[in-house]
Amino acid sequence: MSDSEFYLENGTNIFNGTIDGEKVPRLQIEWRNGSQVATGREGNYINEIGFSFSNSTYYKWNGKSWETVSDLQNLTEATRLYRNRVEYANEAEKLRLKAYETAIEPVGYTSLRYPKNVSTGEHSDFVLFDFFDYQPPFKNNTNFETKVDNSFLFGGTKKKRSFVNEKLPEYNRSGQAGSLYKRDDTGRFPQIMLYMPDDISDTLKADWEGKSFGSTTAGILSSAGTDGIVEKLKQAGNETGKGLSKAPVELAASLITNLAKGITGDSINTGDVFGSIDGVIRNPNVEVLFQRMNLRTFDLTFKLVPYNFDEGKIIKKVINVFKKSMLPTYSIGETEVGGKKGSENRAVEASFIKVPKVCKVTYMRGSSQHPDLPTYKMCAITDVAINYTPDGNYAVYNDGTPVAYELKVSFMETKLLFSEEIDTGRDQSTAPPGQEYGAMRSDVRLKENITKVGNSPSGINIYEWNYIGNTQRYRGVMAQEILERHPEAVALQPDGYLSVYYGKIDVNMERVN
Question: Which region, left, alpha or beta, applies to residue 47 given φ > 0 means left and ψ of -120 to 50 means alpha?
Fold first, then answer.
């Protein structure tokens, strides 16, 4: 059997770079330090397969670079990974939409803490501020096209339209996705850790408005609600004409108001006509209608007292970081506008400024997010107010540092909050002590001898297994399945494996004797 026949039988063909007869993404080869390196494009998801004609080799994407498949002799890994590409792509899409998870930055140039010795123990509460570049809401979105039902089309509108944000995670992507927000590692915008303030509150505001409907309008809308709104709205002009023909009194009142304005200049309405002649006004037919939700806003106030020289420097840095984060940047640098970077095009650099940073505000309890305080998406900083004399008198140390500061920062959340995002509450948890808030390693790739043993009340599959290389048996869930139904309960660990917050699902993780 020839090599070409062997590869075709195995699903791969190194002569035309296909698997199962389908063209695999093409890569280029560069020589770096005496070694061949695959380049040309980044992978779209981990385990994506690519092919280079230069050396007739298949590669897989590991999340950072292209590496050769492990079995170059028979290429079964390339075939297996390619045939599972839909599964890998779907998992990558879920992780792409997964919310950013706050973690405590180690003490150093990327972290500012006040007080300097603020406690971060298991039962210690504090607040973290992380700063990121603003992410445009309509950049690199997943669009889809679909036909629009004929009943919703008016006057020759195209039947096929493009849509975005079909689902809530897609809408939230630019306001919280961890794949978009990377923490600054230069020290220019360090993470800020402050003590828990005294003015924590959470306010949601919805706008409802009372609207008045005249008798004719109320009749039209009532009929539309009964017989189908689209056709009735198309007939609205005819219905209105019929309604007016039945209301000569209304027309007479309108005539009077117009005559009064034209002859005497008096400004009166039809209600004034009925009230002054017959002692009645029209039935307002007032109904309350929902208008919109407002973006959530909140303020946090801190009194910062430097008890030594080092704390004085920290406080000044904290204030300056908040100032810098809320202000635009005059130079756009590496930011692209129409495919041109400001650093490479003087006209682009001169024409635009860069929008301010956004901030992730996280109330913490130990190493985890506080279970009972509000959770915020990325926030814009709308106001920074510093009072250098919070005690009502001017007082400074010998070097000019004020003896106290009051820092008030105002925030606006960058995305609306929806009902689906409100948790049912920690008391619903069935997790054993220690599992309410921590993520337990539950990636199927770490397990073996997996057996399904049942389902939870909500229908989640329950399994028993042992971790590879360990004989102890456990009972719980598979992270990949939980990612499908409850993405908020899954965390991606630094090593690339998935963990599950059992406190957010109705399954316990237990040892099996």
Answer: left
Tokens 């004034």 locate to 272
- How many whole angstroms separate alpha carbon 510 and alpha carbon 32? 49
Q: Position of tokens 């298991």?
A: 122
pLDDT given for residue 231 in this prediction: 53
CA 231 to CA 234: how far, in whole Å?
5
> At residue 249, does pLDDT exceed 80?
no
Q: End-to-end alpha-carbon separation of the chain, Å?
A: 53
Long-range contacts of 334-339, Cβ-Cβ distance < 8 Å, separation of 24 or more: none
Token pair in block for residue 137: 């809401």
pTM of the model: 0.65
CA-based nearest residue to 127, from 375, 317, 335:
375
DSSP-derived letter for residue 167 is: S
Q: Which amino acid is at 47?
A: N
Paired tokens of 105: 């930055």
Residues 6+ apart with CB under 8 A from 293: 204, 205, 206, 207, 416, 417
**What is the DSSP secondary structure assignment for residue 236, as one 8-state letter?**
H
Number of C-beta neighbours around residue 314 at 10 A: 19
